[in-house]
Design a protein that fits this description.
This protein is mainly beta and about 1100 residues long. Helix content is about 10%, strand content about 35%. A hairpin with a 2-residue loop joins strand 12 and strand 13. The longest helix has 21 residues.
């Protein structure tokens, strides 16, 4: 055991009694600290137990708090819509006896305080403690040592339907150190009179004391209908920031540059998101106003960076928490919304997302808001990306609190979610019934409110499996008791080294859950500087067995609630800890070598030192650079076109599939030049490389004459065998009807010095929406033939399109598809293809991928191509495939293939046993193509889209199903017209994983790419030995922003570098090490060779280029 650790532990023992006598201090740590604190690591016993919880009855615990709501004529959910928003719970040791106590906020009932007497026995001391029973509506609660005396005080945020500000004044209970409290909010300057929800105490200016951020909101929307609320009252409705000035608080919201928007805030959490040493804030807002993400500028001001850091957010944000989900040292985020997991509830309780309303909010600068939970992962490079769908936590019904906490002590933060609203106030049938009665003037609000559906729901627990994978364990862990839970808090109530849970329930006693888990741990308490004795804002770094954890000591988390102060690290079976580092807000550190597992440590600020930690140099593999700095000034500008106008039920836009790039030496100077395609209405651009590595626009740009066409796939090739590079550009998109001349592909002939002209007679006359083009000498006559992949039939998704093989006959191309590759006819929606000698027989075979297509292999036999997909093991491989790239990843001399699918970060979740299906037909016989996506639910298939969306496309649906209940209860066969399903285009997908196909023994073996590469649709891949270890590596890019508004847009991709080991294994490298950070709607990646250093060029839809060098 290290000398420093023994000295620290000895110092604790020597000073504990002194502190307690001097100040009746709080440092009564659990007895196992003394018993095990100096045990040698070899003697550590693993903490035994079974992952899960035991729900204790109120008879066992003595906790009888019940947040009962009694509706009246003046207080019901039709008159006061927030009546069931609930209240919070706080856990903290109020008497410094080492046992965490519990405070409950009450809405229509009094707040209650319970003293922990040990062994999960609690005593209600509300009356003797002086907790007020004054009228009011308590919501949030947080514990903090406001007056810096070493005892936790209690701050209550109040709300309600009263128009009298004095009825809403927040309460500050100062701890008298004798089990009693004195309400002192006015004295300390914290008597906020807003419609308050929650507060967070944190050190905003690193001066050693606690400042406070108060979340407020305007009055309940229904109150505006009942009262004339003067504009002057808006001062109560905004969030407030209070600075601690010598123990009293001063409101500095405007000085601190906080938003003056009137937002319906519900949650707040504090964290240092950008690791700059200053505490930042995230505020979750309900309704239209987007969440606030305040980065601390370090000068007393904050900047709302939500637009820059997050690509999309929750629509009706409830609770919020921050924590490091993947143990990479960067703080991640979870926000909660109210999308139902269950099909029936999702189709009855939630209205359809309105595209007009959605984009109106976007236009107004109110972000892209989707009605889903989000799990935002911090890339460490200044941006976040949402993996909520990948993690499986995006839809948990009407959820309030989401907490990131290690519940099974395995070292990974799990997720616990509180769930349920007492009345389904957004039930569509109920609302329609109320609307009809309002029109008739026969509405009795109280009686009608009683008729709203009421369905108790279980809370959720998700076990963190690593790699953004979570498994729902609610039932297995005994956490599935139905109810209406709002606030939820965790703390080690029995000091056994794991986190127990207490909830605040509406119309039911609180749930008290005893954690029964095993697993080793390390528990930290803090003795901070004089004005922050509990060490709020402290960061702790734990190092062990090549693993790493980071945690922050903040207590306001989730929804309206406060956690036990301190930090608990789960260690699993680890018995050896290498080092613990504790960073205080002012930059001082404690470093403890070899701390003992299964102990509690008191970390004292007094022993901290300055600048102890040496920052490691971070050399990144790739370095970003501005393309315009070397002359590549190009920004793709997508033309306006609404794909959903005619095909409302399309899963995503088909008109936004470009741009692509092509690289070649076009003028014979030995330097590679680059062409970048344009959108419809925008010309592509050819840039010529100069000797110094810069680029200039080529004087010859004849494609400007065809800029009405949409440029998609492009390739340089020698069409006429004159030893220079000509250019083929595919014309595609969804905005032009089949047969339009704007869909004609184009060939531009090079005169040898970079001057081009279009030759209209080279290609067969085809007017198809093509996307990819590939070349090979199919007939082995010394010139290049063409494979042209048709992407779609405009207006006919997902009807299969035909692709083509053109044979070069003396510089003219002849369509030989039916003669040598008839299987290309009606092959499908081809997005990409490659020529490859898959069987090493000396000729080139063809692999094609596309939407709703199997990966298709056309094997070359003496110049004729036959579909041998099944022979190679490619049957049942339908997906939403975007790309395929050949690469010998396992160094065995044949080509393997990286195949980019939609990925796993989406709402569809197909499996082998429960495929995703699509049906297409003119179901209502009105001349338009109708698309129906369907999933399995209770052994039958049901539509993914709701009654409103379906009836917009097919009006008969609303006529056939008069209410939402009937629609939600019906199978797809009941919804679609009798006899029409049999004649539809139908496909089913069993997996959306991106994969690598390993070429082995005449079979293509599917192997999923790492999870990090499943976060986004892979649109393009590039291979190379990027780390120069002799093995092929892969860089993948993607995203697809153009989706319908009920689907979260695919914007979570930042690119991903996968390092190969020569045996088909791929290791994902984080952006902080690779340097790759491409948070755009990427389409294509290409390599440009330069004498001064090679470049990676990434083209992005409706955006500028990105470039990296290495």
């Amino acid at each position: 055991m290290s000398l420093d650790r023994c000295l620290m532990l000895s110092y604790f023992k020597l000073t504990k009694t002194k502190n307690c006598i001097k100040n009746t201090y709080r440092w009564f740590l659990p007895l196992f600290f003394v018993a095990l604190g100096c045990t040698d690591n070899k003697g550590i016993l693993t903490k035994e137990g079974t992952s899960g919880f035991q729900l204790l009855s109120h008879q066992e615990t003595g906790i009888t708090f019940n947040n009962q709501i009694k509706e009246t004529q003046q207080r019901n959910h039709l008159f006061y819509s927030q009546i069931y928003n609930g209240a919070g719970v706080a856990i903290g040791d109020i008497n410094n006896d080492g046992l965490p106590d519990v405070f409950f906020s009450g809405n229509m009932v009094n707040d209650q305080l319970y003293l922990n007497e040990g062994n999960f026995k609690f005593k209600n001391i509300t009356q003797t403690a002086g907790i007020a029973s004054s009228p009011g509506w308590s919501m949030g609660v947080t514990m903090a040592d406001v007056n810096s005396d070493g005892y936790l005080d209690i701050y209550v945020s109040r709300n309600g339907d009263s128009m009298n500000p004095d009825d809403r004044v927040n309460l500050l209970y100062i701890n008298n150190k004798d089990y009693t409290f004195t309400e002192s909010a006015q004295l300390y300057g914290l008597a906020d009179k807003g419609f308050s929800t929650q507060a967070v105490f944190f050190d905003m200016d690193n001066d050693g004391d606690l400042d406070m951020y108060q979340v407020n909101q305007p009055p309940d929307p229904r109150l505006f209908l009942r009262y004339k609320i003067p504009r002057s009252r808006a001062i109560y409705h905004r969030d407030k920031l209070y600075r601690n000035d010598g123990g009293k608080y001063t409101e500095i919201s405007r000085k601190a540059a906080l938003s003056q928007s009137l937002a319906h805030g519900l949650g707040v959490t504090a964290s240092d998101f950008n690791n700059d040493g200053w505490t930042d804030l995230y505020v979750s807002n309900d309704y239209d106003e987007p969440d606030f993400m305040y980065y601390n500028n370090g000068d007393g001001t904050f900047s709302n960076v939500i637009d820059q850091k997050l690509k999309h957010i929750s629509r009706f944000s409830m609770g919020v928490d921050a924590g490091d989900v993947n143990n990479d040292g960067h703080t991640d985020l979870i926000t909660l919304d109210m999308a139902a997991e269950d099909h029936y509830r999702s189709k009855t309780n939630m209205g359809s997302m309105n595209p007009k309303e959605f984009f109106q909010l976007v236009e107004w600068g109110k972000h892209r808001q989707y009605m889903f939970n989000t799990l935002q992962i911090n890339s460490g490079e200044g941006n976040f990306y949402d993996v909520g769908n990948l993690a499986g936590i995006a839809k948990t019904d009407w959820s309030w609190s989401g907490l990131l906490v290690d519940l099974d002590n395995d070292g990974l933060r799990d997720i616990v979610i509180s769930n349920g609203i007492k009345k389904d106030i957004r039930n569509n049938d109920f609302l329609n019934k109320v609307a009809k009665k309002i029109k008739k003037g026969s509405l009795n609000l109280l009686e009608e409110s009683k008729d709203a559906p009421s369905v108790p729901l279980p809370n959720y627990i998700y076990k963190n499996k690593g790699d953004f994978r979570f498994k729902k364990e609610s039932k297995e862990w005994g956490f599935d008791q139905p109810g209406f839970t709002t606030g939820i808090a965790y703390g080690d109530l029995d000091n056994d080294g794991d986190m127990d849970i207490i909830t605040n329930n509406i119309d039911a006693p609180a749930f008290v859950y005893r954690n029964t888990t095993g697993g080793n741990f390390l528990k930290l308490y803090f003795e901070g500087p004089r004005n922050n004795l509990f060490g709020y804002g402290v960061k702790a770094f734990l190092y062990y067995n090549d693993q790493f954890q980071i945690a922050e000591n903040f207590v306001s988390r989730g929804y309206l609630s406060s956690m036990e102060p301190g930090i608990l690290f789960g260690l699993g079976k680890e018995k050896k800890i290498e080092r613990l580092e504790v960073l205080w807000p002012d930059g001082k550190r404690n470093i403890i070598e070899d701390p003992t597992p299964n102990t509690s440590l008191l970390i004292r600020y007094e022993l901290a030192k300055t600048n102890e930690r040496k920052e490691r140099a971070n050399t990144k593999m790739f370095c970003g650079m501005d393309p315009s700095s070397i002359g590549l000034k190009f920004s793709h500008k997508e033309n306006e076109y609404d794909d959903f106008q005619e095909e409302t039920l399309l899963p995503h836009r088909l008109s936004e599939n470009g741009p692509f790039s092509a690289v070649a030496d076009i003028n014979g100077d030995g330097l590679e030049d680059v062409f970048i395609g344009g959108a419809s209405g925008q010309s592509g651009r050819l840039f010529v490389q100069q000797e110094n590595g810069s680029f200039i626009p080529n004087p010859s740009q004849p494609w400007e004459m065809e800029k009405k066409s949409e440029d998609l796939g492009c390739i340089f090739l020698d069409v006429d065998n004159d030893d220079d590079m000509d250019l083929f550009v595919a014309s595609g998109g969804n905005e032009f009807s089949q047969g339009s001349k704007l869909l004609e592909d184009r060939v531009y002939i090079n005169n040898g010095v970079g001057e081009f002209h279009r030759d209209r007679d080279i290609l067969p006359k085809k007017y198809e929406s093509s996307q990819c083009v590939r070349t090979s000498d199919i007939d082995k006559d010394g010139d290049l033939d063409l494979l042209v992949g048709t992407r779609l039939i405009p207006g006919r998704y997902p009807y299969p399109a035909s692709s083509f093989l053109y044979i070069n006959d003396g510089g003219k191309y002849v369509d030989k598809t039916m003669e040598i590759a008839p299987d290309l006819t009606n092959i499908g929606l081809v997005s990409d293809a490659t020529f490859s000698d898959i069987d090493n027989d000396g000729d080139m075979d063809i692999l094609l991928v596309g939407e709703w297509m199997n990966i298709t292999l056309l094997e070359n036999s003496n110049g004729h191509f036959e579909d041998n997909s099944e022979k190679w093991g490619l049957q049942s491989t339908k997906g939403i495939w975007w790309s395929i790239t050949p690469v010998d990843i396992d160094n065995d001399g044949d080509e393997d293939y990286v195949v980019g699918n939609l990925g796993l970060n989406n709402k569809f979740k197909p499996t082998k046993d429960h495929p995703l299906r699509i049906y297409a037909n003119d179901f209502d016989k009105n001349g338009t193509n109708d698309i129906v996506l369907a999933k399995e639910y209770k052994d039958s298939y049901v539509p993914l889209r709701g009654r409103e969306c379906m009836s917009n496309q097919m009006p008969y649906v609303a006529d056939k199903f008069k209410d939402y209940h009937t629609y939600a209860s019906s199978k797809l066969t009941d919804i679609l017209p009798t006899g029409r399903i049999e004649n539809t285009v139908t496909h089913e997908i069993k997996s959306l994983e991106s994969i690598i196909l390993i070429n082995s023994g005449g079979k293509l073996i599917q192997k999923p790419l790492p999870t990090e590469a499943q976060v986004f649709p892979i649109k393009s891949s590039l291979f190379g030995d990027f780390n120069e270890d002799g093995h092929m590596d892969i860089l993948v890019v993607g995203n697809h922003y153009g989706v319908e508004v009920e689907t979260i847009r695919y914007d979570s991709g930042v690119g991903c570098l996968l390092l190969g080991d020569g045996s088909s294994n791929l290791i994902p490298i984080p952006a902080t090490k690779s340097g790759i950070n491409i948070p755009k709607d990427s389409r294509h990646i290409n390599l440009i060779h330069r004498p001064s250093g090679n470049l990676l060029l990434i083209t992005n839809n409706n955006d500028s280029l990105q470039m990296y060098r290495w």
